[in-house]
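Input chain follows. Return structure tokens only.
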Amino acid sequence: MPSKKVLTKSLFLAHLSLLTATIIWAAAGPVIKVTLEYLPTFTFLLFRFLLVGLLLLPFILLELKRNPIDRRDLINLFLLGLLGQSSIAFIFEGLKYTSALDSAIIGVLTPLMAIAAGHYFFKEKINKFVKTGVLVATLGSVVVALEPILNEGIFNQDTKIRLWGNFLVIVYNFSFLIYIIWSKISLGQTSPIIKKSLHFIHLKPMRKNYSTFLMIGTSFYVGLATMIPLALAENLGLFGPINLDIANLPPGPILGVLYMSLLSSIVAYMLFDWALNTHSMGDTAIYSYLAPIFTLPFAYVMISEIPTKFALIGSAVIAIGVIIAEHKKS
């Protein structure tokens, strides 16, 4: 659980925001898998970003009128959109091949690495328990990632497909980790290491202060811009044959697009980023440990998934790592 602090109203609201975002994202995996049975990846994401973009447009325009974007900050906003939104294609594609439970468990890698990144880049204090816990939990994540081989005992075509799905999920989690780091850098949090890195790649923190709403909102438009050509190529059959009848979609995938647009995109991202800017990376990350627990009932009810023996073993190892990391946490 979070570090011991005086539970002020603002701190309570930050914890509540993180918990709500965690639950919303925990259900996202099963929702995505169900919807992908009817909509191909990039078309699904195009609808998601298009709906979000239309809903946010009047509010974004008002915010831009109040606080115009400095042209020198466009590259920062583009990178935030690329890392935070466009990269979601990796986990959507990964969920076509792996289970929602494996995806959720592997997702614990992100908060673990966020703790390490917070220490390395922003000098957030961690102790030997945190370091040991991160290593143990990473081992558990490796067990889950390799679960298809361990569970089947052979390296066949199905195993390769599951491993590919797990690999894509890992790629997304590393991308989201970089998004978290870049978000804090863009908001002006820095260190000597970061200053040297930014100088090397000729980038600087934001010149102006922008609201969380504007930063998240513009990232969705970056996602939309990157999905348009990909969805077009997809529907032209360049990525393989598809069987899509938009006019006769049943209610299920429509609800899936609405869930991913309204709750998983707008609501969860706003809550997460608001809490991120009031918490240390370590405290923010801790709530993501709860995601597999919340995913379990959603996965069982929606897609009849149950954890395998090695998924449970990996989860147990991760849990031990989390307990160690949180023991006497500085």
